[in-house]
Structures are given as C-alpha cells and as structure tokens.
Amino acid sequence: MSHDHTTPPESSASVTPLPGTPPEVKPLNLIASLTIFAAVAGALIVMAYTSTKPKIDQHRAETIGAAITEVLAAPATVRTIFVYRGQLVDSLPAGVDSTGLDRVYLGLDESGNAKGFAVTAGEPGFNDIISLIFGYVPATGRITGMKVLEEKETPGLGDKIEKDSAFLNGFAGALSPIKGVKRGTAHSDKAQVDMITGATISSRAVINTINHRLEKIGPLLKGYRQGGRP
C-alpha cells in the first residue's frame, strides 16, 4: 500500500506573524535611523555649547577678576602676562592663539608700580581637583593672599579650605615655600600656616599646590621685566 502525498517546498511555505508581534526592522534601516539620531544629537550639543560658552567665559573672567582683587589687595590695574617659549611676555606674536597658554596676572598700583602677581593653580585634593589663586611678590618671596576658586571636598570638613577665615588669613604675608603645621603650634618662622583640624589632607593639598606652582613658575616671576616681548 502506497501513500501518495506532496510536501510543498520550504520556499513556498508561508509564515503568519503572531498577533502583537512588532514588524521586522531591517538592519540597514536601524543603522540609518541611529546615524541620523546621533547627528541631530551632536548638532544640538554643539549649538548648546556655542550659545553658552560666551556666558561661561564671561562668568569665569568675572570670577578671576574678583579673586585677583582679593589676593592682591585691590590693584589699580591688572595685566595678563603669558608664558610663551619659556618666558613671561606682555604680548604674543601676531597669529599666536592664546587659548591653552599658561598665564599669570600682574597687579599694578595707581603709579604703575607692580604690587605682585596673581597666580592660578590646581592639584588633586581629598576628593577632586582643588583650583585656587594666590598673590605673590617675587622680590620678597611672600604670599599676599589665597582664594579657593573651585573644590569638591567633603562638606563640613574639607570644604573649610574656602570658608575657614583663620586658614585663609594665614596665607597673607607667609613666606614661600609654605609649611603646614598643626593648629595651635607655636610658629617658629613666617613660612608656617595653620592647617584645619579634621581636614589636614585638604589643607596640605592647598599648601602643596602653591609650593609646586612656585617651584615651576617662581624663577620666571622673579626674572620678569615689564614690557617683555618674545
């Protein structure tokens, strides 16, 4: 006894999608959609950055300006001095972009005499980078003041580096290199600054940041002459 039946070829079989099954998305269509989405998102980010950058730059300039006034005891005028090819210069050659160049700020009194330099610096603290600015007089080696510009230290402890008046005032008149000492210690020389109890790591980070910065740029500050050009 024979059975005669025919099985349709696989190519002719039809598959009925289950109810609720999402339609199949072709890989090329998916890639194209993702590419367009990424391009649009990138354009929006660039537009947002372009529109907000001038405001950010202006705010930073205002912050630096106020800090310079504080650490140099209100100079009459301030000049931006660039570090260019290993020396301090008042102006850059034509065509040289100042973006990214190291710089310091020279404070002058009403007679045009130098009061000192305001110098920015930043190094790791306990949690993150501590950014600060300090005033410095090369002729005497004295710090005229210090102000923390940005920090993310532990609230109530490390963040006292920008709030503790005794700590901040300790930098005014201190000789460099600065030495951090435990608060209450009798000062044996004018280079000592009292650290903050409970925040010695953050306090020492501030002191080390200033010392390390002066190790590098101090010789240039001492050798600077107004009107310097490359």
Protein described:
By secondary structure, the chain is of the alpha+beta class. The protein has one domain (51-223). 32% of the residues lie in helices and 23% in strands. It has three helices and eight strands. The protein has helices spanning 27-71, 165-169, 200-223, and strands at 77-84, 87-89, 103-108, 114-124, 129-137, 142-150, 179-181, 192-194. The strands form two sheets. Strands 2-1-3-4-5-6 form a six-stranded antiparallel beta sheet. It has a two-stranded parallel ribbon with strand order 7-8. A hairpin with a 5-residue loop joins strand 3 and strand 4 (114-124).
- Topology order in helix (H) and strand (E) letters: HEEEEEEHEEH
- What is the makeup of the main sheet? 6 strands, antiparallel
Q: What's the N-to-C terminus distance?
A: 108 Å
Ranges with pLDDT <50 over ≥5 residues? none
Structural class from helices and strands? alpha+beta
Radius of gyration (Å): 31 Å
| Widest beta sheet: strand line-up | 2-1-3-4-5-6
Report the average pLDDT across residues.
87
Q: Count of helical segments?
A: 3
Shape designation: extended
Strand percentage: 15-25%
**How much helical structure, as a percent, in the residues?**
25-40%
Number of domains as seen in the coordinates: 1
Strand segment count: 8
Question: Brief description of this entry?
Answer:
The chain is α+β, with helices and mostly antiparallel strands. 32% of the residues lie in helices and 23% in strands. It has one domain.
Write the layout of secondary structure elements.
Layout: H1 27-71, E1 77-84, E2 87-89, E3 103-108, E4 114-124, E5 129-137, E6 142-150, H2 165-169, E7 179-181, E8 192-194, H3 200-223
Parallel strand pairs: 7-8
Antiparallel strand pairs: 1-2, 1-3, 3-4, 4-5, 5-6
